[in-house]
Write a sequence for this structure.
């Protein structure tokens, strides 16, 4: 089985983009990824960030539903503490029906304090344990709503219920049956959980419930740790961890030659975004420390060129295959190369070509790691 390809759309738009441009770029990117043979596209949800300016990822998926054929979509992630669970369960169920099953559901606890604040979560409650408790309650409610069995639940954060449906005895009764907004096919969608911090509670949740783990690449140690946390919880809950379900998001650019690919990343939209937005954020969230440790350098010396040469996966198809295989040897491997999207709205050709090369020239040459059931 070959590695799968996914696009993750945060979408790192230049802050002067209009909502219309961002939306259009989202729909165009989903059509291009579908045509290139990508397996999935994940779209972020952010309330506060001007570089990550999509508050409602489901709108792009709905717009792309009729213009794409095989690619699967996922919000990555719906931030559960920011939603009413019943409303979200119905939106998700309906969208999964519109996409006729080309849908899986990414969930997260939330990364940005200002976004949590806007949703009524005070600063002192914004620690990852508290947010994860909200995630768990929200999940329980959504699953009950999708089951369509009568309940009323009074929770710590939300109340919700599902009414008992009376048997329809007359033709008039038939007109008042409950609409069905449960996911396509009547079963729950596959869930995916985002993990970020080294001691990730989200990876533990993913393991316990056998959800798909999705990590941001933040250094080899953190990634190994994510897999260990996930697989330990997964085995404890009676499942067999499968590395091919793990998706890892990374900065990837495939060009015709190494030199062309490096120049494109250094001088194009990716370099522009890293210099202004992501490098400062990575320093703040400690991600630079992980990369610097991997290569034994001072984190303050980790600049864009270091990232392009050592951390990102950039080069010709042969180089990119080599880089991924080396990482797989060192870290254990994963199933989906989740490529971070960037703002090529003005001139998409090099970006779309890179996606084509990733799907046609890179992914088929990477063998997936075999399933490992690491003893707990
Ligand atoms: C691949 C990926 C995508 C994410 N997308 C979002 C997002 O769209 N919106 C958001 O607020 N946080 C996002 N996050 C952050 C999560 O909401 C959350 O803060 C983080 O995964 C918590 O991880 P932890 O349990 O490892 O500390 C994302 C994280 C990852 C790894």
């Amino acid at each position: 089985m070959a590695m799968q390809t996914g696009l993750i759309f945060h979408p790192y738009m230049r802050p002067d983009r209009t909502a219309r441009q961002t939306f259009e770029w989202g729909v165009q990117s989903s059509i291009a990824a579908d045509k290139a043979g990508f397996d999935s596209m994940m779209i972020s949800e952010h309330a506060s960030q001007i570089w990550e300016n999509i508050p409602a990822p489901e709108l792009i998926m709905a717009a792309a539903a009729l213009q794409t054929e095989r690619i699967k979509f996922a919000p990555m992630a719906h931030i559960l503490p920011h939603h009413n669970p019943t409303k979200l369960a119905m939106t998700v169920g309906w969208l999964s029906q519109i996409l006729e099953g080309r849908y899986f559901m990414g969930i997260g606890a939330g990364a940005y304090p200002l976004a949590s604040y806007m949703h009524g979560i005070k600063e002192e409650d914004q620690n990852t344990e508290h947010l994860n408790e909200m995630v768990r309650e929200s999940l329980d409610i959504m699953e009950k709503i999708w089951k369509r069995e009568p309940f009323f639940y009074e929770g710590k954060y939300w109340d919700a219920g599902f009414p008992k449906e009376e048997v329809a005895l007359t033709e008039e009764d038939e007109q008042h049956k409950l609409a069905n907004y449960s996911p396509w096919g009547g079963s729950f969608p596959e869930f995916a959980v985002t993990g970020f911090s080294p001691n990730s509670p989200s990876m533990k949740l993913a393991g316990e419930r056998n959800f798909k783990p999705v990590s941001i690449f933040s250094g080899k140690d953190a990634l190994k740790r994510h897999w260990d946390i996930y697989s330990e919880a997964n085995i404890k809950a009676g499942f067999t961890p499968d590395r091919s379900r793990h998706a890892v998001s990374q900065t990837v650019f495939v060009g015709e030659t190494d030199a062309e690919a490096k120049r494109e990343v250094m001088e194009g939209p990716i370099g522009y975004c890293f210099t202004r937005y992501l490098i400062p954020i990575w320093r703040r969230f400690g991600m630079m420390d992980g990369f610097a440790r991997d290569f034994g350098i001072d984190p303050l010396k980790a600049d864009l060129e270091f990232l392009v040469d050592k951390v990102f996966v950039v080069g010709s198809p042969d180089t990119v295959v080599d880089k991924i295989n080396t990482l797989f040897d060192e870290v254990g491997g994963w199933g989906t190369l989740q490529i971070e999207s960037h703002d090529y709205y003005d001139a998409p050709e090099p970006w779309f070509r890179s996606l084509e090369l990733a799907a046609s020239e890179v992914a088929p040459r990477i063998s997936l790691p075999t399933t490992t059931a690491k003893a707990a």
Remarks:
- The mean pLDDT is 94.
- Residues 44-46, 76-77, 79, 108-112, 115, 128, 194-197, 200-202, 214-216, 249 surround flavin mononucleotide (CB under 6 Å).
